[in-house]
Design goal:
This protein has about 170 residues and is mainly alpha-helical. It is built from nine helices and four strands.
Length: about 170
């Protein structure tokens, strides 16, 4: 659910009910059938105006808040059918794609060198597979594409690794 008008109707309803954030959170706990309610921090994120304010919240949270304020959910929130979640990272965005083509379509590549475990996760391959590829390239008198030695540790440039894998695939199929 997305709060209406950047939370202005929500804040007005909180003020009209004579509640503050901690008391509204306590009220949601009283009304929640599971007895959990919402934390004061989460209610503050939803009702807030600052940098930490959130436009979206769960349907459960919207319903509990509306019920605690004795309001209709639609008076405070609107349903969201599709949301693109942006990464808060300044270095790269996180896009999740499942399936075999994930390495090709998962969005921008990392802007840093990866260690072997991170490369394995990125390629969806085991560390043993990576070791065998490095050994096979070494036996053929080549360096595996994207392999960089930093001191005694191995680091991998995912751009070069994928380019090398594509080149190898075209050589095999030709």
């Amino acid at each position: 659910m997305r709060r209406l008008d950047q939370g202005a109707p929500l804040r007005a309803a909180i003020k009209a009910a004579g509640l503050d954030i901690p008391h509204l959170a306590a009220r949601t706990k009283e009304l929640d059938p599971t007895g959990r309610g919402l934390s004061p921090a989460y209610v503050g994120f939803i009702a807030g105006t600052g940098k930490s304010a959130r436009e979206d919240c769960s349907e459960r949270a919207a319903e509990l808040i509306a019920q605690a304020l004795d309001q209709e959910v639609t008076a405070l929130f609107e349903p969201v059918f599709f949301t693109v979640v942006e990464s808060t990272s300044t270095s790269r965005s996180a896009t999740a794609v499942s399936g075999k083509s994930a390495a090709r379509t998962a969005g921008p590549l990392p802007e840093q060198l990866l260690d072997q475990r991170e490369l394995g996760r990125f390629l969806r391959k085991s560390m043993t597979w990576i070791d065998s590829q490095i050994k096979a390239a070494s036996d053929a008198g080549r360096i595996w594409p994207g392999l960089h030695y930093v001191g005694r540790s191995r680091r991998f440039d995912p751009h070069e690794v994928l380019a090398g894998m594509r080149e190898q695939r075209t050589r095999i199929s030709a």
